[in-house]
Amino acid sequence: MPRLAIAMDLGTSGFRAQALDLGSGEMLSTAITTRHPLPGANVIDHLHFALELGVETARDLMIQAINQVIAQLRVSAGDVVRLAVCGNPTQLSLFQGMEIRDLAFAGSRKLLALGVVPPKRAAAIRSAVEFPGLVLPGECAVIIPPAVHDEIGADTLALILQTGMLQDGETTIAIDYGTNAEMVLAHEGRIYTGSAAAGPALEGQHISCGTLAIPGAIADLEPVGDKHRLIVLNPEMRPVPGSLIYLREAVEIAAAAGPKALAITGTGVIAALDQAIEAGLIALPHIRTADSRLHFGKDIFLTEKDLSEAGKAIGAVRAGYFTLSVAAGIAPAEIHTAYLAGASGTYMDALKARRLGLIPPRVKAVRQVGNTSLAMARELVMTPEKLQEMSDLAGRLQKTHCMFALSKTFASVFILELSHWTEGMPMAKYRELLSRYRLPDLPAVDAEPQVHRTVKQDIAEPGRIGLVTLEHVGMVAALPLDGCIGCMTCVQVCPGNAISIRQDTNPPTIFLDHALCNGVACRRCEPGCPTKVFHLNDFFDLTLGRKAAEDDSARSKRWR
Fold first, then answer.
1. 251 close to 300: Cβ distance less than 8 angstroms
2. Is the model's pTM score more than 0.90?
């Protein structure tokens, strides 16, 4: 009888999982989602949802999505004896159904007033039976790594251990690019950590034609004269040449021999901004084309709003590594080596990223290392003793964490970044103001660094059964609403295209896709309802619409 294990990265933007044979160590299969099952695009949205609807509701939605992912691994769930999860403190806390108010509210006085006792987020090995609804045998061991701080969790520990950055003995930085850009700076034997709320643009979210790194995503652009060749992820998640396009116009000059581009991911956005600046098509904060868009064929484009979103994300990352440098008593230009992790760190062109400011300006070497969180989960299922190594490292990091939200350095530099990206402030003025603030200089990039791609794709080995991408994850709630007049206002005002209506029922039935919803902080649907019968929270009661949500046809069909 086979003994199987599942390694899972519970990311803010989506889940990634792999099945392994514990006997042989063979990788069997991989499944990834294109969204997170909870409404919203960042941890603040997820915390807000859990505070308003309850941690139990958030946990149940996550467990349901995890079950969907496990099913797509195409192995026998009954043979799984270990599950290891990795992620940031918010995701792992919600998965466990733990207290999360200490993650949502800053300040000990506020927590005291609420009567909140922050839980210890230590390493643990629990039984699957403790996770109601999880489709694994009750005796299956669930391995949960520790957190360091409210912002720094198992994913950051994984970043340090999987890169081996502490072994270099040099001044190095490791950055996991994503909605929350975790970063670690090592200098003279000390480790400094921080987490920048970069927002979802670096992962292709909140971008007009954006997507996570999935098959069909534009991951890069290569210049061909005054045109560009799209680099697209194929079904095995490898970047391959795509169509030839003209950034100025919505035309496809030469169709791709390989996969068709479906949308653009974060690294494609980075490449597009770099190439458009080089070609004079961007003069911040504007796009200098006839329609103020950059085009990647007929139906995929970037707008000036997308440019602003990406610029703010880039600015948060640069302000982050600048702040860690100051905490270590050095200038950003003194950082020698950079490790790039996550899907964005894997697929981005390091030289383009450095020109935009995502990598310190004078690094001599760049190492692109893939999904370190998933790699750590794999290591934990194969060698659970690694949990102690993570716990030891967590204790070491607690004294040198830098909370960017309270840092004057971060605030000063991020204001400069906003001025640069959203108002067009020249970098010469930026550097002048750094000097006035008595902060280190941020020089222009110099000679090209050596770039080492240790992996060719975000998930280095999908396994012999292969990779499955879940286009729909989580729950679609269906509610017949008395008083609904079928006016379609809620559908039209929803920014995430999460709502659809079936009007051939009496009363009309409203469908809400949880994973597409922007969360309880959005609520554009409620005030738009002329009869005031649309109440968003009703769609998150798991006792409602479950049958429709579990039915594949209801999940995929959209009624207009």
1. no
2. no
